[in-house]
Amino acid sequence: MRSDILKKGIETLPHRALLRAAGLNDDDMEKPFIGVADSFNDIIPGHIHLRKLSEEVKRGIRDAGGFPFEWGVPGICDGIAMHVSMRHSLPSRDHIADNIELMVLSHSLDGWVGVTNCDKITPGMLMAAARLDIPSIIITGGPMMAGGESGELDLSSAFEAVGSLEKGSMDPGKARQIEMNSCPGAGSCSGLFTANTMSCITEALGMSLEGSATTLAISNRKLEEAYMTGRRAVELVRDDLRPSAIMTENAFENAATVYIAIGGSTNGILHLAAVAKEAGIRLDAD
Predict the structure, then answer these.
(1) Does residue 137 contact residue 125 with C-beta atoms inside 8 Å?
(2) Tell me, what DSSP letter sits at residue 217?
(3) HSE, side-chain direction, 13 A CA sphere, residue 145
(4) ∠ CA(231), CA(105), CA(268), 5° rounding?
(5) Around 244, how many Cα atoms within 13 Å sit in the side-chain half-sphere?
(6) Which end of the chain is less congested by CB atoms within 10 angstroms, N or C?
(7) Taking Cα atoms as reference points, which of 87, 54, 84 lies closest to residue 71?
């Protein structure tokens, strides 16, 4: 295992001393070291529940015989940043890929799990997976429930309300009701925007568990998927199954086909091409 450089040999005795300070014991030194890149924060609605998913991922890793190491990955909410400071959003994607590269390589991890959901975070993690080419898997946090009494509202309703207010065709009271009810809780914005598009692309590439792209954020099934993702991460390490064996040229063609078929966000091709470049695969827009 990659982590053997830390676990064995006289030269890395001080390294093991530091690992023991973090809580590891002799038994843990025999286990695969699995990173958990957790993009939880309490700013992005699509990420406010990711800490719960990360706990399930870590439980799955432990139950499968691995040892989890968790760290934080930054995330920007495009919906909040737009019209204010959107120029920071796209660079954050590459920053996220760099964050994971730094943490995984610096600490000789055997594999890692990306816990993600929204626009630039998911492609950043896919870029890191392709770049590092060590066993890895992604769990996306799932979409938000629709809002309103019968699911008639979503974030698009709020954007449309802006135009209606400016035109004078909507009562301010109605607009406030839309503001209060269009986004009811945790999850990526309900709609086929960039976050949900990239979740579908991630699954189509083979980098997340089957069916996970469309599992609602607040469902118990999403917690089960997180647990199984943790278990799968350990299996990938034991089998030495790397992203280069998963994200093949055929996988990118499959993902592109799915992307076109679902009519995903126009940002999807930008991110898919960036991930393909990290994988050494040329993906033309046409």
Answers:
(1) no
(2) T
(3) 11
(4) 70
(5) 9
(6) C
(7) 54
Q: Which pair of structure tokens corresponds to residue 238?
A: 């034991």
> Which tokens is 43 given?
């700013």
Our count of domains for the chain comes to 2
- Of 118, 126, 120, the closest CA to residue 100 belongs to 126
**pLDDT for res 142:** 98
Same domain membership, residue 126 and residue 56: yes
In this structure, are 239 and 110 located in the same domain? yes
- Decide if 22 is inside a domain: no
Q: Could you give the 3-state DSSP secondary structure of residue 71?
A: strand
Strands 136-140, 111-116: pairing is: parallel
Q: Which residues of the chain have pLDDT under 70?
A: 285-286
Q: How far apart are CA 226 and CA 229, in angstroms?
A: 5
- pLDDT, one tens digit per residue, over 233-252 is 999 999 999 999 999 999 99
CA distance 168 to 28: 65
